[in-house]
Automatic annotation (TrEMBL), chain A:
Family: Belongs to the TrpA family.
InterPro entries attached to this UniProt entry: Aldolase_TIM (IPR013785), RibuloseP-bd_barrel (IPR011060), Trp_synthase_alpha_AS (IPR018204), Trp_synthase_suA (IPR002028)
Organism annotation: Flavobacterium seoulense
Pathway listed: Amino-acid biosynthesis; L-tryptophan biosynthesis; L-tryptophan from chorismate: step 5/5
Gene that encodes the chain: trpA
Protein name: Tryptophan synthase alpha chain
TrEMBL record, chain B:
Cofactor or coenzyme needed: pyridoxal 5'-phosphate
Protein name (record): Tryptophan synthase beta chain
Quaternary structure annotation from Swiss-Prot or TrEMBL: Tetramer of two alpha and two beta chains.
SUPFAM superfamilies noted in UniProt: Tryptophan synthase beta subunit-like PLP-dependent enzymes
Residue stretches making up the Tryptophan synthase beta chain-like PALP domain: 56-378
Main enzyme class: lyase
Length: 253, 393
C-alpha cells in the first residue's frame, strides 16, 4: 500500500504542509522536510517551483521566484531528495505545474519519483480528463497517486467523476480563490464542507487554501480528514528562516 | 487535413484546456455555449451592425500602387488600422462582450501588453456599460502611457501586474488569477488566439471577418476570391488567424506568418517562437513556447510590445508543424525600416507589429503577377515614441 493510503487510515486528522523546494535557500529542502516530520507533520507537499504559477497568490509566487533564482529545478530537486527515504518516512507529495514535468518527460518524471520514494503528485493544471486518457496508466505503473482538486464551484456530478478517477485523497480547495487568502472561514465554507461530506465519496478529503492558524485548521477538519497549510508556513519561513519549524507546528495543533 | 479546431479543442497536437479546476466551470460554460450563442440570428445581427456602424467595417482592401511598383508584384493592404481604436483587436472584443452579456456576466477582465487590446476592451465595456478591469505589466504601464490614459478615460481600472517579469505574460497570469477569485460574475476577454479551448477558436471566428471581406473585395478588384499569398504578423496570432481563416483550406493560397526576431533570433532577445519554442503549456494551452530546458517560461523580447509573447496560438503551432504556413522572423531594425518605407511610399504610418509583416517583402521574392495581401493590423499612432527614438526624428 502507498504511504499516503496508509497514513489516511490512521484515526486522526491529517496536518500537511506545503513549501517551495529551494526556499529560502537552495539547499534547505531536505532539512525542512526532516524538521517537519520531527515536529509531527503527517504529510508534506514539496513545491516544484514554476515561473508562471497560475493558481497561486503572491506569497507562493514570491517563494517560487526566489527558489528559481536560487537555481531550483526538477533535476536538482531529485538530486536533493535521492536519499530522503533514509531519514523520512511520512508521505511525500510533489506539487507542481505540468510544463516542467512535460519537459522532463512524464514517464521519466514518474520513474524518478518512484525511485526516490515520492508517493504522489498534485498538478493543478493537468485536467482530470487529460490525465484519465493519457497519463493514468503511467502513474499507476509507478504506483504514484495523482491528487485532484475540487472547488466550491465544482458540480456534484464532476466531483463524483473526479472521485472515481482518484485514489488517495481529494484536495478540497476551501474557497474561490488562489492560494494564500486569509479571510477566514464563514458559513459559506461550512455549508460547502458539509455538502461534500454528505456526498460520501470513496476518497477522503483534505482541505487546502486559506488555512493559516489553529482555528482555520480546526474548522477545516471538522468535516474533512485533514488540511494543508502553504502560504502561512512560507511566511513563517520568510520571517524566521528554517530554524523554528517546531514552534509553527505547535501553534496549529 | 483540417487546420480548424477539432471537437476536443485541438489543432493536431496543439490546444486543449490545461487549466486548474478552479477555472473549469467558467471555461466549460463558454465551451458549451460559444457556438450556440454566436450562431443565433440575433447575435449575428448585433455583431454585424456594430462592426459596420461602430467599428467602421468593412475595412478597405487597398491596392498599394507605389509599394507594388517597388517590389514588382501586386500588393493589397487589408486596412485594419482604419478600425475604431486603431487595430483589429476591436473585432474580437465586440464579439466577446456580446457573448459575455448573453452569459449574464457583469464584470469584464482583460490582459494587455501594448495596451491595444486593453483599449479595445475598455471601449466595448463603455459601450455596454460593464465594469472593466485591465491587467497590464508594471513595465508596460511605463512604456505605454498614452494607452493607459485612454483606458482610464474610457472608465476602465488598470491594475499593474507586479509578478514575474511584469510584462504581458504576467498580466495574463494576473487576469487568470482574478478569474479564479471571481468565478461567477466575471468574463475574461482574452486578446489573442491563445488560452484554453474554446478561446483560440472563438477569437479566430470573430477575427475571421478579415478574410471573409478579403474574399469579396478581391473578387471585385481582381476577379478572383483567392490571393496567391496572405501575410500577417504573429504575436499570439489573432490578426493572422482572421486573415488566414477562409484560405486555410484553399491550397493555392500561400500562408505567410511573421514573428518578431527582436535583436536577432539567437541574440537572446527575440520572440521568434516557431524557431526557438518547444511544445509546452502556457496559459492553459498546449503549444510552442519559449522555455528553458527545465520548462520555465522565458521572457521574450521585441521592439513591438504586441509581438512580445513567449508562445503562439495553437492554430499557428499546427500551421508551423504541418508546413501549411511559411514562417519568417523579422528583426527590430528591418521592421522599423519597413514601417518607415510604408510612410514614405503610401502615406500610411503602420503599427510596428504590422511593420513586421511588411518587412517580408524584402525576404521573399514574389512574381509580378502574384496577388499578395498583407494584414495591416494596426496604425502607428501608439508607436510614435518608439519610431522617434529609433530614427532620432
Ligand atoms: C496592431 C497590432 N498588430 C498585431 C498585434 C499582435 O497580436 P495578434 O498576434 O493577436 O494579432 C497587436 C497586439 O497588440 C497589435 O496591436
Amino acid at each position: 500500500m502507498n504511504r499516503i493510503e496508509q497514513k489516511l487510515q490512521e484515526d486522526k486528522k491529517i496536518l500537511s504542509i506545503y513549501f517551495s523546494a529551494g526556499y529560502p535557500n537552495l539547499n534547505d529542502t531536505v532539512q525542512i522536510i526532516q524538521d517537519l516530520e520531527k515536529s509531527g507533520i503527517d504529510m508534506i507537499e514539496i513545491g516544484l517551483p514554476f515561473s508562471d504559477p497560475l493558481a497561486d497568490g503572491p506569497t507562493i509566487q514570491a517563494s517560487s521566484t526566489t527558489a528559481l533564482e536560487n537555481g531550483m529545478g526538477s533535476e536538482i530537486l531529485f538530486e536533493q531528495l535521492k536519499d530522503i527515504r533514509k531519514t523520512v518516512s511520512i508521505p511525500l507529495v510533489i506539487m507542481g505545474y505540468f510544463n516542467p514535468m512535460l519537459q522532463y518527460g512524464v514517464e521519466a518524471f514518474c520513474a524518478k519519483c518512484a525511485e526516490i520514494g515520492i508517493d504522489g503528485l498534485i498538478i493543478p493544471d493537468l485536467p482530470v480528463d487529460v490525465y484519465a486518457d493519457e497519463y493514468k496508466a503511467t502513474f499507476d505503473k509507478y504506483g504514484l497517486i495523482n491528487v485532484f482538486l475540487i472547488t466550491p464551484q465544482t458540480s456534484d456530478e464532476r466531483i463524483r467523476f473526479i472521485d472515481s478517477v482518484s485514489n488517495g485523497f481529494i484536495y478540497m480547495v476551501s474557497s474561490a480563490s488562489v492560494t494564500g487568502s486569509s479571510a477566514g472561514f464563514g458559513s459559506t465554507q461550512e455549508d460547502y464542507f458539509k455538502r461534500i461530506a454528505d456526498l460520501n465519496l470513496k476518497n477522503p478529503q483534505i482541505v487546502g487554501f486559506g488555512i493559516n492558524n489553529a482555528e482555520t485548521f480546526k474548522q477545516a477538519t471538522q468535516y474533512a480528514k485533514g488540511a494543508i497549510i502553504g502560504s502561512a508556513f512560507i511566511t513563517h519561513l520568510k520571517e524566521n528562516g528554517s530554524s523554528k519549524i517546531a514552534d509553527f507546528v505547535k501553534a496549529i495543533r | 487535413m483540417s487546420y480548424n479546431v477539432d471537437e476536443k479543442g485541438y489543432y493536431g497536437q496543439f490546444g486543449g484546456a490545461y487549466i486548474p479546476e478552479m477555472l473549469y466551470p467558467n471555461v466549460e460554460e463558454l465551451r458549451q455555449q460559444y457556438l450556440k450563442i454566436t450562431a443565433e440570428p440575433e447575435f449575428k445581427a448585433e455583431f454585424d451592425q456594430l462592426l459596420k456602424d461602430y467599428v467602421g467595417r468593412p475595412s478597405p482592401l487597398y491596392f498599394a500602387k507605389r509599394l507594388s511598383e517597388k517590389y514588382n508584384t501586386k500588393i493589397y493592404l487589408k486596412r485594419e488600422d482604419l478600425n475604431h481604436t486603431g487595430a483589429h483587436k476591436i473585432n474580437n472584443t465586440i464579439g466577446q462582450i456580446l457573448v459575455a452579456k448573453k452569459l449574464g456576466k457583469k464584470r469584464i477582465i482583460a490582459e494587455t501588453g501594448a495596451g491595444q487590446h486593453g483599449v479595445a476592451t475598455a471601449t466595448v465595456c463603455a459601450l455596454m456599460g460593464l465594469e472593466c478591469i485591465v491587467y497590464m505589466g508594471e513595465i508596460d504601464i511605463q512604456r505605454q502611457a498614452p494607452n493607459v490614459a485612454r483606458m482610464k478615460m474610457l472608465g476602465a481600472t488598470v491594475r499593474a501586474a507586479l509578478s514575474g517579469s511584469r510584462t504581458l505574460k504576467d498580466a495574463t497570469n494576473e487576469a487568470i488569477r482574478d478569474w479564479i477569485n471571481n468565478p461567477v460574475d466575471t468574463h475574461y476577454i482574452i486578446g489573442s488566439a491563445i488560452g484554453p479551448h474554446p478561446y483560440p477558436d472563438m477569437v479566430t471566428r470573430f477575427q475571421s471577418v478579415i478574410s471573409e471581406e478579403i474574399k469579396w473585395q478581391l473578387k471585385e478588384k481582381e476577379g478572383r476570391e483567392n490571393p496567391d499569398y496572405v501575410i500577417a504578423c504573429i504575436g499570439g496570432g489573432s490578426n493572422a488567424a482572421g486573415t488566414y481563416y477562409h484560405f486555410l483550406h484553399e491550397p493555392e493560397v500561400g500562408i505567410i506568418a511573421v514573428e518578431a526576431a527582436g535583436k536577432g533570433i539567437h541574440s537572446g532577445h527575440s520572440a521568434a517562437t516557431s524557431k526557438l519554442g518547444k511544445v509546452g503549456i502556457i496559459h492553459g494551452c498546449k503549444t510552442l513556447l519559449m522555455q528553458t530546458p527545465d520548462g520555465q517560461i522565458t521572457e521574450p523580447y521585441s521592439i513591438s510590445a504586441g509581438l512580445d509573447y513567449p508562445g503562439v496560438g495553437p492554430m499557428h503551432a499546427h500551421l508551423a508543424e504541418t508546413g501549411r504556413a511559411e514562417f519568417f522572423s523579422v528583426t527590430d531594425d528591418d521592421a522599423m525600416k519597413a514601417g518607415l518605407e510604408l510612410c514614405k511610399l503610401e502615406g500610411i504610418i503602420p503599427a510596428i507589429e504590422s511593420s513586421h509583416a511588411l518587412a517580408v517583402l524584402n525576404d521573399k521574392k514574389f512574381k509580378p503577377e502574384d496577388v499578395v495581401v498583407i494584414s495591416l493590423s494596426g496604425r502607428g499612432d501608439k508607436d510614435l515614441n518608439t519610431y522617434i527614438d529609433h530614427f532620432n526624428f
